[in-house]
Design a protein that fits this description.
By secondary structure, this protein is an alpha/beta fold. It is built from 21 helices and 15 strands. Keywords: Cytoplasm, Glycolysis, Kinase, Magnesium, Metal-binding, Transferase.
């Protein structure tokens, strides 16, 4: 990079704030076991898949007699899945930790994600290289990828390369599927007798990798602040121009945490929460009617404008369409190369239509052709429909427009409807991390180092009490298998980490439900502005609103 912005240069000088325990010498940090954590369901099957990893306790790091830190470690690191702000700081915390244990320790970065481990493509990360990436966004230090390590051949090649490089440990930085990779690798290495500690780090801007121990995944804070700035700008534009309804689709394939946080940050007129729609068994027509009624109510006040937030994964939560997608997935998986050889568009639509049962075939036919085509596109490497490429916001615009014309004919709507559509996705993944994410990610990397020093393989780094200042954070780790269940992928039963959805009985959603009717009719939007990196902590270091609500902070 030939020229850096002033902010880029200034961020190098930022020193992440860390839990107080991290200031202790490494031999004075102890891994204190707590209760044994087991999965909520599928216990026997998971135990059979992970016999050496099942039934381990959670740990937290406290002052005490730890392990000697004289050994020089060779540690591999993988960035897996889509980028999330702060990934470079995870690597920085890991690097600083292993170098503190022994300056001769080495950090090996596998290039291009998990495939780098399989194919033996790597580079050594040194201090000079890392200094160019501290406190910056992106995953470009070594690149990322979405390869899933699960076949016997992939596992064996990973094992061979780990042994060849003399790895003492491997750190996988990623989301639910990526950390499932880490659990499979850990179990395989144990079965092969390889002394390689495998540790995971929770990454996903979607915020769906969370539980009692993992309070938030890294990248979520930065992404929601980026999106909220943009939404706030649009809210101001909407109330200035007073002529458009803005339909804004946000990242969040499997959960609506991003939509919920951005709603708190900006107070839009409508924020759809996918989990609520599924729980209420709402049809597409009912969702459209809800939006149209709100538009009509504002039009009655002379306000023919507004802002609507739509979660990226909404379409998979509408029960009738969820069933349709599941059937399409089965058809694609069963057809294999026969389907893959078909050209996109009419040929794939016709093939799918010919295989669907009559009821879902009728629903499929009613959808716009563009949406039909998008539902038929190739699945991602994990077998998921690529919902970011399904233009749900445009589907809603088309159907709402149709409904408003009907209401106008009925005399129940007298306004004018014009619109703009937006999708905020990639804009939030590689921003300079917020101070929260810069601190959190560095601490996650350092926690990963401590898990390695204590030989805790099959664990994921976890830090608690995140609504408090960093010095009060509680670092530790939990066994990855404890987060898993069995799901159907590519037509087969697979062990995967269970996604954390918006809890409709949780404090954040209940707080949202109490105010959304007021927001629907109000134009008193909240304008959060851009991420602030310098200034008073009340501006620069404040964590996500939903995290504060969850912890009564």
């Amino acid at each position: 990079m030939l020229e850096r912005s002033p902010l880029h240069t200034a961020r190098y000088a930022y020193t992440p704030k860390v839990p107080e325990i991290f200031l202790e010498p490494l031999p004075h940090i102890k891994a204190l076991p707590s209760e044994v954590i087991e999965p909520d369901k599928d216990k026997e099957l998971l135990k059979s898949i992970f016999p050496n990893s099942f039934g381990k306790p959670a740990v937290k790091f406290v002052k005490g007699e730890g392990v000697p830190s004289e050994k020089a470690f060779t540690v591999g690191v993988i960035l897996s899945g889509g980028p999330a702000a702060g990934g470079h700081n995870v690597i920085a915390g890991l690097f600083d930790g292993i170098k503190k244990a022994n300056p001769k320790s080495k950090l090996i970065g596998f290039k291009g994600g998990p495939s780098g481990l399989i194919d033996g493509k790597y580079l050594e990360i040194n201090a000079d290289m890392l200094e160019q990436y501290r406190n910056t966004g992106g995953f470009d230090i070594i690149g990322s990828g979405r390869t899933k390590i699960e076949t016997p051949q992939q596992l064996e090649k990973s094992f061979e390369n780990a042994i060849k490089l003399g790895l003492d440990a491997l750190v996988v930085i990623g989301g639910d599927d990526s950390n499932t990779n880490a659990a499979l690798l850990s179990e395989y290495f144990i079965q092969k007798g390889a002394p390689v500690t495998v540790v995971g780090v929770p990454k996903t801007i979607d915020g769906d990798l969370k539980n009692e121990w993992i309070e938030i995944s890294f990248g979520f804070d930065t992404a929601t602040k980026v999106y909220s700035e943009l939404i706030g700008n649009i809210c101001r534009d909407a109330s200035s121009g007073r002529k458009y309804w803005h339909f804004i689709k946000l990242m969040g394939r499997s959960a609506s945490h991003i939509a919920l946080e951005c709603a708190f940050q900006t107070r839009p007129n409508i924020a759809l929460i996918s989990e609520e729609i599924e729980a209420k068994q709402m049809s597409l027509a009912q969702i459209v009617a809800t939006i149209a009624d709100a538009i009509a109510a504002r039009a009655a006040k002379g306000e023919n404008f507004g802002v609507i937030i739509v979660p990226e994964g909404l379409i998979e939560f509408i029960p009738e369409i969820k069933a349709l997608i599941a059937q399409i997935n089965e058809i694609i998986a069963a057809a294999g190369s026969e389907y893959e050889s078909l050209p996109r568009g009419e040929a794939q639509r016709s093939f799918i239509l010919s295989k669907l049962p009559a009821e879902t075939a009728a629903l499929f036919s009613q959808l716009p052709e563009s949406i039909q085509t998008q539902l038929c596109w190739d699945r991602d490497p994990h077998g998921n429909v690529q919902v970011s490429r399904i233009e749900t916001e445009k589907l809603l615009v088309e159907m709402v427009s149709r409904r408003l014309k009907e209401m106008s004919a009925e005399g129940t709507y007298t306004g004018t409807f014009d619109y703009q559509t937006h999708f905020f996705g990639y804009e939030g993944r590689c921003a300079f991390p917020s101070n929260f994410d810069a601190d959190y990610c560095y601490s996650l990397g350092y926690s990963a180092c401590l898990l390695i020093l204590h030989g805790l393989t099959g664990y994921i780094a976890a830090i608690r009490n995140l609504a408090a200042p960093p010095k009060e954070w509680i670092p530790g780790g939990i066994p990855i298998v404890s987060m898993m269940n069995i799901e159907r992928r590519h037509g087969k039963e697979k062990p995967v980490i269970k996604k954390a959805l918006v809890d409709l009985e949780g404090k954040p959603f209940k707080a949202f439900a109490q105010v959304r009717d007021k927001w629907a009719l109000s134009s008193d939007y909240r304008i959060p502005g851009s991420i602030q990196y310098f200034g008073p902590p009340s501006i620069t270091d404040v964590p996500a609103i939903i995290l504060q609500l969850e912890q009564n902070s």
